[in-house]
Amino acid sequence: MFAQRFYPDDPLMREPPPLPVPHAHAREINDYFDFFVNTFEVYDRDQIRHHHPAPSDAVNSLGEVPDSAWFTNRIGSGPMSTDELVRGPDAGHDPAAGQWTVISAKNQGITPGLVIRDSAGRKYFLKFDPKSNPEMATAADVIGAKFYYALGYNVPENYIVHFRRERLALDSKSTFKDSAGRKRAMAPRDLDKILDKVPHNREGEYRGMASLTVPGELIGPFRYTGTRSDDPNDIVDHERRRDLRGLYVFCAWLNHTDAKSINSLDSLVDENGLRYVKHYLIDFGDLMGSDSDEPKDPYRGHEFVYQTGPAVTQLLTFGFYAPAWMHADYPHIPAIGNFDYETFDPERWRSNYQNPAFQLRTPGDTYWAAKKVMAFTDDDIRAIVATGQYSDPRASQWATRCLIERRNRIGRAFFRDILPLDHFAVRDGKLVFDDLAVKYGFEGARTYTVQWSVLDNFNSRKTTIPGATTFLVPHSTEPYLAADIQASDPRKTVVVYLRGTQVVGVDRTW
Amino acid sequence: MQPSHHWDHLNEYLESALLQHRAVEWRIVITLMAASVSAPNQQSQSANRLAPQTRAGEIEIAREQKAAAVHPETQLHAEQVLQKIEDEKIMERIFGGVGGWRLKLGGMIVRSGFAAGPEYFRRFADDQVVFRASIRASTRHYYLVETGLDLPHLAQDHAFANFYAVHFNYPSVEYYGPGPNSQKTGRSDYLLEQTSFQTRLGIEPIHRLRLGANGAFLLVNVGPGRDTEYSSTERLYSEAATPGVLYQSNFVQGGGFAVLDLRDKPLLPHRGEFYAAQFTANRALDGPYSFRRLDLEAQQYIPFFNERRTFALRGRIQATDPLSGNRVPFYMQPTLGGDSDLRGFRPFRFYDNASALFQAEYRWQIFYGMEMAVFADAGRVFDRWQDINFRQLRKDYGLGWRFNMSEAVFMRIDAGFSNEGFGVWLKFGNVF
Questions:
Q1: A64 CB near a chain B CB, below 8 Å?
Q2: Which of A344, A499, B129, B386 gives the lowest tally of CB atoms within 10 Å of its CB?
Q3: Average of pLDDT values for A490-504?
Q4: Do A102 and A174 form a contact (C-beta atoms < 8 A)?
């Protein structure tokens, strides 16, 4: 090991500017392949089985995720106003007034979709709700974009739109894929048939979700393992990235069960004079109680599509064993679908099928993510839910209540796995911090022990300073000091590193 | 217990990168190593000279190393194959939905063996017209050719029409003699060959309620069974006991039907009801075989545990009533026994002029793509429909596995047990 324990620029809050990427080839990820590989050929099976995943990467010396092409610190790293939360990724690019030109359409599946261009020349994917559940998927898509943006991810601009049939016009080159799978020129009757499948109000007005095309040259989804071989800036295996491992917690909170590769997107963007690959999360129509084209099946979020253990249990018990989710009592609100908090267990939540980054999460990852979830106040959540524009007040009330209750369960669960001390600083010669479990009321006030040491930055060796067992920073001529902090559980420690009075590092054990 | 690490992966990457770098400057390294014997601190200092001095520099070096080796993203061969299957819509072609040629499985009489063949399927006029034609053969040399034209969306989905023609040749259909007391040892077989032209016209005045009329012309040929293990039916049973075994007729059919389908998913129901009634007048063109027939069916699905469990109930009455001086030909009589009614009995175990059937299943989900069921069947055939009652029913029970795709049972395996033995059925599609 030739590297220093700490560099002068630690803690790094932003990755250095990316290397230019002049070109990268678009490639697809096959959904079935992704399912089979992740279901039956589990990545790093031994790590998962023995519960010893490799340490997380793409974190700075504080354990935080620095800003990068993947992630931008927003909520939890600084204050976010309600206006900022509600605005989310939106940059005022909602579809412009005037006619929308339909470029292409799909009529396969239960909920069809259109690709449109507005009068300003911007391109959108226009998605709809199932007839049985008006507002359900469109609200989920918009709400999801706001939450994920606030949490730090790159997401598209999603807008609720209302329009009448007359607003849509066909381009002379519009294409259409009919139910037989044939691609052909699109006719007005094709558009009428698509709109026949989606709900509209008595005035003949349709509600849709217009998702602005992600900027740049689209080069396909990212995988949750390995790195992109054509992106020189992609140097950390994705299954080890804290921002992807911690995504588990966000997906659990929002019940985003369809978090998989094909619901991500890489784009070659030109920003600040640089061309590089930026990584997006897309498609949030299956958030909360929605499964896009129908209410979420109650098992989703609780079991994988296929999971040997529960399947064998059901087989052997003839179905007499009924796990808690089978007793979930959902409100009969069409715009919500099947969403609850009573049966939500953050540590046992499941995406539709295994996701390697989720499977390899560590308590450090879930703690990092839980901090961000807990940073949303009740009012923040209420404000973001309101962007879904539910016409039934019961829907917004229920979604808000579930998200608040699920947030609290997340904090309670993931602040228990480690010693959740944070916000370290030196004030008046004393090391101060917050115990987040105490701050949020999950634990009563508790006492801590501390032992100071001197750190040799070149060999990471610590030398105990005798008698330095209070939170007062001991006087020392050495550049680096370390404070080992414990509460009642000796397995859960936090080591805080100081360079002078600057907190430069935090290590946690569990 | 595990400490968190910061950019350790990068450190590993960087070490590798530095070693490569030092391969170029190998002479310097050897000099450093030699010097380290006398001056240990010099090694780390020299290494530090080569290593980055900032965290950002560490990342940049790792990026530069990767930049020297970038190459286009590729898919594994298995993924390419699956992608092709998806792009070419091969699964859809096999299991329906896409126009053109596709594979058609099953759809023949029970005991025909595994049946498969090509089907041409095409929608026309914005899905207003659906055409299909297929030919199938089974492992036991049963054959079927059929073609149909559906107009499912007439009058803005308030009317429908269907035209259908089929020819099949089943060389060995089981027959055990008439009535509920026929003996298992009385097994025989006969050939059933039939060509029919059918039409069905109807309206859907309200959603899920269908009313209509149907008509058909049937050309029937009954002959000696081809299974050498059993006697042919005409050798064991007389025309008096088994009407139509020696003389056969063609038929003209006409009737009406009503269907109320309130199931949530018709091909994979977990809640709702289904009611159907069909009346058919059968006029024999040759011989005293004219009769009327009434089929009644009710299904009820009672879910619990968020629809992971379902009690599925079914009742069915089939009644024929010969016209004065006529009898119902045995090959058009109601039957019981087989894959979808009395599953613990042989196929077509019981023939007679009327039948009553009651089935109950407790279904539970194993996982998203599979359900299991325990079931009980009870039923009986009767000489006259006026005699239908619930006494002396033949009963069986069993266990089933159902494999689901999308919103339908794709395949099921049912094992039924009765006082006459057991039956194991592998079928494509649900039982009810």
A1: no
A2: B386
A3: 96
A4: yes
Kindly report the nearest CA distance between residue B220 and chain A, in angstroms.
36
Alpha carbon distance B5, A6 (integer Å): 12
Start-to-end C-alpha separation, chain B: 55
Report which residue type is found at A253. W
Short-list B252, B234, B251, CA closest to B243: B234
Q: Which residue carries 């106040």 as its tokens? A: A377
Count chain A–chain B contacts defined by CB atoms under 8 A: 205
- How many angstroms separate the CA atoms of A461 and A453, rounded? 9
**Burial tier of A403 (Cβ tally within 10 Å: 0-12, 13-18, 19+):** buried
Q: What is the per-residue pLDDT across B252-297, written as a single tens digit (0 to 9) for each?
A: 999 999 999 999 999 999 999 999 999 999 999 999 999 999 999 9
User: CA nearest B202: which of B194, B214, B217?
Assistant: B214
Note whether A61 contacts B55, CB cutoff 8 Å: yes
Contact by Cβ (8 Å): B359, B278: no
Restricting to B residues 345-374, those with a Cβ less than 8 Å away from any Cβ of A are 362, 364-370, 372, 374
Cα-trace Rg, chain A: 25
What separation in angstroms does the CA of B392 have from each of A110, B250, B320, B388, B406? 48, 35, 20, 11, 40
Interface membership of B153 toward A (CB under 8 Å): no
Alpha-carbon torsion B239, B240, B242, B243, what sign?
Answer: positive
**Calculated CA dihedral for residues A118, A121, A123, A128, nearest 10 degrees:** 0
* Chain A interface, best mutation among B5, B46, B55, by max A CB count within 10 A: B55
For strand B394-405 and strand B370-382, is the pairing parallel, antiparallel, or unpaired? antiparallel
Q: What Cα–Cα distance (Å) separates residue A197 from each residue in A112, A289, B205?
A: 7, 21, 20
Chain B residues with CB under 8 Å of A233 CB are: 63, 66
Does the bond joining A11 to the residue before it have cis omega, within 30 degrees of 0? yes
In contact, B262 and B202? CB cutoff 8 Å: no
DSSP state of B222: E
Give residue-wise pLDDT tens across range B38-66.
344 444 444 444 578 899 999 999 999 99
How many other CB atoms are found less than 10 A from the CB of residue A50?
8
Tokens of A369: 């993510």
Tokens, residue B158: 């308030």
Asked if the Cβ–Cβ distance from B367 to A303 is below 8 Å, we say yes
Residue with tokens 């990755």: A15
How do residues A415-424 score in pLDDT, each as one tens digit?
A: 999 999 999 9
Quote the DSSP letter at residue A12.
P
Q: How far apart are CA A159 and CA A180, in angstroms?
A: 31
Write down the ipTM of this complex: 0.92
pLDDT digits (tens, 9 = 90+) for A51-84: 678 899 999 999 999 999 999 999 999 889 999 9
- One-letter amino acid of B428: F
Within 10 A of A72 (CB to CB), how many other CB atoms are there?
16
Q: Is A273 left (phi over 0), alpha (psi -120 to 50) or beta?
A: left
